[in-house]
């Protein structure tokens, strides 16, 4: 992510190709809003390692995301 020290990795090729638009604050609350949107809106799994890394994995269901 561009304006935060948080390191975000997408562990799914379909998610990497998915266009996502929007405006999110560059504060910790903005990052949390983005992660919540990805989880709630796309069924992703958000995993944190406690050292500033966040891993975003594909949908929890077997539904495929189409680019």
Write the layout of secondary structure elements.
Layout: E1 7-10, H1 13-17, H2 28-42, E2 45-48, E3 53-57
Describe what this molecule looks like in 3D.
This protein has helices at 13-17, 28-42; strands spanning 7-10, 45-48, 53-57. With 67 residues, it is an alpha+beta fold. The longest helix has 15 residues, at 28-42. The chain is globular and about 25 Å long. The two termini are 21 Å apart. The model is unreliable at 61-67 (pLDDT under 50).
Estimate percent helicity.
Answer: 25-40%
Structural class: alpha+beta
Q: Helix segment count?
A: 2
Radius of gyration, CA atoms, in whole angstroms: 12 Å
Mean pLDDT: 79
Shape descriptor: globular
Number of strands: 3
What assembly state would you assign to the polypeptide chains in this entry? single chain
Q: How far apart are the first and last residues' alpha carbons, in Å?
A: 21 Å
Order of helices and strands: EHHEE
What spatial order of strands do you see in the largest sheet? 1-3-2
Low-pLDDT runs of 5+ residues are 61-67
Give the biggest beta sheet.
Answer: 3 strands, mixed
SS strand fraction? 15-25%
Give a short summary of the structure.
By secondary structure, the protein is an alpha+beta fold. It is built from two helices and three strands, in the order βααββ.
